[in-house]
Amino acid sequence: MSRRLALLQGNIGLDYNGLEECSLGVRAMGRNQHVVSCGEGWAVEAEGTSQPRAVFKTQSEAWEKAKSLARKERSVAFLHGRDGQIRVRNTYGHDARRRKG
After folding, report:
1. Which of 40, 50, 42 is nearest to 66 (CA)?
2. pLDDT tens-digit readout, 17-70
3. pTM score > 0.70 for this model?
4. Which residues are within 8 A (CB) of 65 and not within 5 positions of it... i.e. 6 or more apart?
5. Alpha carbon distances (Å) from 98 to 44, 56, 70, 93
6. Interior angle at CA 93, CA 90 and CA 95, nearest 5
7. What is the Cβ-side half-sphere exposure of residue 31, based on CA atoms within 13 angstroms?
8. CA distance 98 to 101
Protein backbone atom coordinates (compact mmCIF):
# COMPACT_ATOMS: atom_id res chain seq x y z
CA MET A 1 0.00 0.00 0.00
CA SER A 2 1.37 3.41 -0.85
CA ARG A 3 2.31 5.66 2.01
CA ARG A 4 -0.14 8.36 0.84
CA LEU A 5 -2.99 5.83 0.60
CA ALA A 6 -2.23 4.52 4.09
CA LEU A 7 -2.28 8.08 5.40
CA LEU A 8 -5.60 8.80 3.68
CA GLN A 9 -7.12 5.63 5.11
CA GLY A 10 -6.11 6.72 8.59
CA ASN A 11 -7.64 10.16 8.08
CA ILE A 12 -11.02 8.94 6.88
CA GLY A 13 -11.26 5.75 8.92
CA LEU A 14 -11.50 3.16 6.14
CA ASP A 15 -11.27 -0.47 7.08
CA TYR A 16 -12.48 -2.38 4.01
CA ASN A 17 -9.78 -4.94 3.26
CA GLY A 18 -10.35 -8.02 1.16
CA LEU A 19 -13.46 -10.07 0.59
CA GLU A 20 -15.07 -11.55 3.68
CA GLU A 21 -18.17 -13.59 4.32
CA CYS A 22 -20.80 -11.76 6.34
CA SER A 23 -23.25 -13.48 8.68
CA LEU A 24 -25.85 -13.88 5.90
CA GLY A 25 -23.45 -15.77 3.66
CA VAL A 26 -23.26 -12.90 1.17
CA ARG A 27 -19.87 -11.71 0.01
CA ALA A 28 -18.90 -8.43 1.59
CA MET A 29 -17.02 -5.60 -0.09
CA GLY A 30 -13.83 -6.14 -2.03
CA ARG A 31 -10.88 -3.79 -2.00
CA ASN A 32 -11.68 -0.14 -2.50
CA GLN A 33 -10.12 1.54 -5.53
CA HIS A 34 -8.37 4.92 -5.31
CA VAL A 35 -7.39 7.14 -8.24
CA VAL A 36 -4.32 9.12 -7.19
CA SER A 37 -1.79 11.38 -8.86
CA CYS A 38 1.30 9.47 -10.00
CA GLY A 39 4.07 11.60 -11.47
CA GLU A 40 2.70 12.99 -14.74
CA GLY A 41 -0.21 10.51 -14.81
CA TRP A 42 -2.87 8.91 -12.64
CA ALA A 43 -2.76 5.54 -10.88
CA VAL A 44 -5.53 3.19 -9.76
CA GLU A 45 -4.52 1.71 -6.40
CA ALA A 46 -6.40 -0.97 -4.49
CA GLU A 47 -6.39 -0.63 -0.71
CA GLY A 48 -3.95 -2.95 0.99
CA THR A 49 -1.61 -3.28 -2.00
CA SER A 50 1.83 -1.77 -2.52
CA GLN A 51 1.70 -1.42 -6.31
CA PRO A 52 -0.82 0.42 -8.51
CA ARG A 53 -3.17 -1.80 -10.51
CA ALA A 54 -2.82 0.48 -13.54
CA VAL A 55 -1.38 3.86 -14.57
CA PHE A 56 -3.03 6.19 -17.10
CA LYS A 57 -2.19 9.49 -18.79
CA THR A 58 -5.49 11.12 -17.83
CA GLN A 59 -7.53 11.21 -14.65
CA SER A 60 -10.73 10.33 -16.54
CA GLU A 61 -9.21 7.10 -17.94
CA ALA A 62 -8.08 6.09 -14.46
CA TRP A 63 -11.48 6.98 -12.99
CA GLU A 64 -13.31 4.76 -15.50
CA LYS A 65 -11.00 1.82 -14.65
CA ALA A 66 -11.45 2.36 -10.89
CA LYS A 67 -15.25 2.44 -11.25
CA SER A 68 -15.18 -0.73 -13.32
CA LEU A 69 -13.06 -2.55 -10.73
CA ALA A 70 -15.24 -1.28 -7.86
CA ARG A 71 -18.40 -2.48 -9.64
CA LYS A 72 -16.87 -5.92 -10.15
CA GLU A 73 -15.70 -6.17 -6.51
CA ARG A 74 -18.79 -4.47 -5.04
CA SER A 75 -16.66 -1.86 -3.29
CA VAL A 76 -16.01 1.89 -3.34
CA ALA A 77 -14.17 4.02 -5.90
CA PHE A 78 -12.45 7.20 -4.67
CA LEU A 79 -11.24 9.98 -6.97
CA HIS A 80 -8.48 12.11 -5.45
CA GLY A 81 -7.29 15.46 -6.77
CA ARG A 82 -3.60 16.32 -7.23
CA ASP A 83 -3.66 17.69 -3.66
CA GLY A 84 -4.73 14.27 -2.31
CA GLN A 85 -8.20 15.40 -1.25
CA ILE A 86 -11.10 13.10 -2.15
CA ARG A 87 -13.18 14.77 -4.87
CA VAL A 88 -15.70 12.00 -5.63
CA ARG A 89 -16.78 8.78 -3.94
CA ASN A 90 -18.91 6.11 -5.65
CA THR A 91 -20.26 3.07 -3.80
CA TYR A 92 -21.25 -0.04 -5.73
CA GLY A 93 -23.57 -2.70 -4.36
CA HIS A 94 -23.86 -1.70 -0.72
CA ASP A 95 -26.12 1.32 -0.52
CA ALA A 96 -28.17 1.68 2.65
CA ARG A 97 -31.81 0.68 2.47
CA ARG A 98 -34.34 3.45 2.12
CA ARG A 99 -36.94 3.34 4.88
CA LYS A 100 -39.89 5.49 5.68
CA GLY A 101 -39.88 7.50 8.81
Report:
1. 42
2. 333 333 333 445 689 999 999 999 999 999 988 899 999 999 999 999 999 999
3. no
4. 44, 53, 54, 56
5. 31, 37, 22, 14
6. 70
7. 16
8. 10
